[in-house]
Amino acid sequence: MKYSIIKDHDWLLILTVFALASFGVLMVFSSSYVEGMYMGEGGSGDPYFFLKRQAVWFLLATILFIFFMHFNYHVFKKLTPYILILSFLSLFLVLVGFGSSGGGAQRWLQLGPFRLQPSEFVKLGMVIYLAQVYSQKQVYIHKFIKGVLPPLIVVGLIFILIMRQPDLGTATAILMVTFFIIFLSGARWIHIIGLGVVGGSLFTVLAVSESYRFRRLTSFVDPFADPMNDGLQLIQGYIAFAHGGLTGTGLGGSVQKLLYLPEAHTDFILAIISEELGILGVLFVLACYGVILFKGVLIGIKCKNPFGSLLAFGIVFQLAIQVVFNIGAVSGLLPITGITLPLVSNGGSSLLVTMVSIAILANISRHNIRQNRLKEDFDNQVKTA
């Protein structure tokens, strides 16, 4: 079997990822330089503060992308115990005095000049763990106690640690991915429906248990009922969309980023994209996501290895959840959960994990392509023998 660096890589997937991530760095700068200048996080007063930080993360993410694109994804099966230990340890450290706070939550670890959000890494870690464990339970996946339940205990503990931060959006995303992987593993419908009822009930209880959380989850229904508090962010986002129109005000021409729209460079960066580049800019973002998700689904379908297939579908669904949650929140169709727009929003941990996740997809695709080429070479040898 001949190796070809051109033919053995999914270049459409790779180029789309880098196009969107590069566009994200540009939009982080455009949406944040006013805040960097006047707010000056840490008193910096530097309009390039967020750009420089995001550019460093993008460079690091690029290096890791290249590495994991060529890292045999099968090795993750052996690394799963260590991934679980690191997941629990990082979340535990956040809660016992080593974490840093922001926005009323304690979700980060300060490691020198870098501030990491462990829950972002845990999301990928849980996809790897669930793909590994359920790929080995195919024989008795129809049995709830022996097949379905054991991994849910681990997921439950992770869920509790993340909710202690608190971060309902990330915790819910992990539960949804877990449910999806169980479904793809071939669990019985009665078990799937039962887990759906339990998960929905748990979300409802958590949503109404804290008044601030309930207000945040329901304010999207009528943001104008409280335009100066819970509805402020969404209303300012609406204004940005309306101001942009079809072609936008031009790169750098946003008015809402002048400290009117909270979290303009993170949660609501899509609103700034719409304001400056119009609906066409939004369509570009959506087209990139469409290519990435479509390619990811094809990779999962073509992979004949149960672990690789579940891993690919888990990564794709995790990414899709984040995209839907963010765009739904910015457009007012879903509650605001604080989940950022993958590859585009400011945030080093999110960018790093998303690019590593897609690099794993590219690696699975590479194995698929090489396996198909091996089969073709074998068939040709048989025909010519």
Automatic annotation (TrEMBL):
Its main location: membrane. Pathway: Cell wall biogenesis; peptidoglycan biosynthesis. It is found in: Cell membrane. It comes from the Bacteria. It catalyses: [GlcNAc-(1->4)-Mur2Ac(oyl-L-Ala-gamma-D-Glu-L-Lys-D-Ala-D-Ala)](n)-di-trans,octa-cis-undecaprenyl diphosphate + beta-D-GlcNAc-(1->4)-Mur2Ac(oyl-L-Ala-gamma-D-Glu-L-Lys-D-Ala-D-Ala)-di-trans,octa-cis-undecaprenyl diphosphate = [GlcNAc-(1->4)-Mur2Ac(oyl-L-Ala-gamma-D-Glu-L-Lys-D-Ala-D-Ala)](n+1)-di-trans,octa-cis-undecaprenyl diphosphate + di-trans,octa-cis-undecaprenyl diphosphate + H(+). Keywords: Cell cycle, Cell division, Cell membrane, Cell shape, Cell wall biogenesis/degradation, Glycosyltransferase, Membrane, Peptidoglycan synthesis, Transferase, Transmembrane, Transmembrane helix. The chain crosses the membrane at residues 12-34, 54-75, 82-102, 144-162, 168-185, 192-209, 277-298, 310-336, 348-365. Its EC number is 2.4.99.28. Peptidoglycan polymerase that is essential for cell division. This is Probable peptidoglycan glycosyltransferase FtsW.
